[in-house]
Amino acid sequence: MRTVTIADVARHAGVAVSTVSYVLSGKRAISATTRQRVLDSVRTLGYHPNAGARALASKRAKVIALVLPLRAGMNLPVLMQFATSVVTTARQYDHDVLLMTADEGPDGLRRVAASALVDGLLLMDVEIHDPRVPLLRELAEPSVLIGFPADPEGLTCVDLDFAKAGALCADHLAELGHRQIALLGAPRVVYERGTGFAERTMAGFTEAAVRHGLDADARPCEESFDEVHGAVKLLLDERPGLSGLVVHNEAAAGHVLGALRMLGRRVPEDVSVVAICPDDVAERASPALTSVLIPAEDVGHQAVRLLMAKLDGHAVPQSTLLEPRLTTRGSTR
């Protein structure tokens, strides 16, 4: 079967080949009537512009790289929410997404940038002292970080304000009258890497607890039921008066509720529980968890929007922090 060419589309629509090219690239204003005639011919003939030709004509690859943290301690379903949002939004800008793993580090970024395969880069799992940051400041390709290093100067970063999210959880428990509270955070390996979102959540929680004069504890938490049960039991043994618990570990949230039940603590009658997690995780729990939403869809959308603006030469803000939102459900009183 013969491949349909741009010349075939031009003949079918009764226009010049250059007019078809302008309609498809958007580089020149074409009348609405002519544009519609060309698009009708494209659909009728089943024409698919060659990606390589498009890239040469526009000097763009029409691809962005998403550096995804497929590493220990990261919750895969939540990562997929971010990735889905990035892919969906990128398609709205006529771009595809190349997935890279974060463990390639600066060498992986340098390799993909040198290949001219991508127009720009989105990076997740940003560390406080991220070794990729110096390279990002040097690359010709624009980049956006989903997360914040210690020094964001010269970078473009977007994320939930995790420090405020941690503080909001402590504020909520303080307002309910709880005086002894604790945070069960991400797995230990996440803190050992100095991952920004985990560090900032713990710092925000601790600062708010001090501000309210609360007796507070904050520690890592692993993901398996046995490990979670052990962590909760140790916490209750050390702090018998504990009545408020914040969980910043999506994989552990349901296990925390189960462990509390096994240890004879009712939720929320004996212990109020707040989670920082996607709404679907909070709503599936029993009881449904009071939670601060991780807005993966919004963050992914904003990251792509910022990257596309940079590709078009527009100025963008250095820092974009999404305001945390707490939804009260059945796990706190």
UniProtKB/TrEMBL annotation:
- Mind telling me what this protein is named? LacI family transcriptional regulator
PROSITE patterns according to UniProt: HTH_LACI_2
Looking up Pfam families in the UniProt record yields:
LacI, Peripla_BP_3
Please give the PANTHER family that the UniProt record associates with this protein: LACI-RELATED TRANSCRIPTIONAL REPRESSOR, LACTOSE OPERON REPRESSOR
Q: Which SMART domains match?
A: HTH_LACI
- Keyword Repeat attributed: no
- Outline the extent of the HTH lacI-type domain: 4-58
User: Do you know which SUPFAM superfamilies this protein is assigned to?
Assistant: lambda repressor-like DNA-binding domains, Periplasmic binding protein-like I
| Keyword presence, Transcription | yes
Q: Which UniProt keywords apply?
A: DNA-binding, Transcription, Transcription regulation
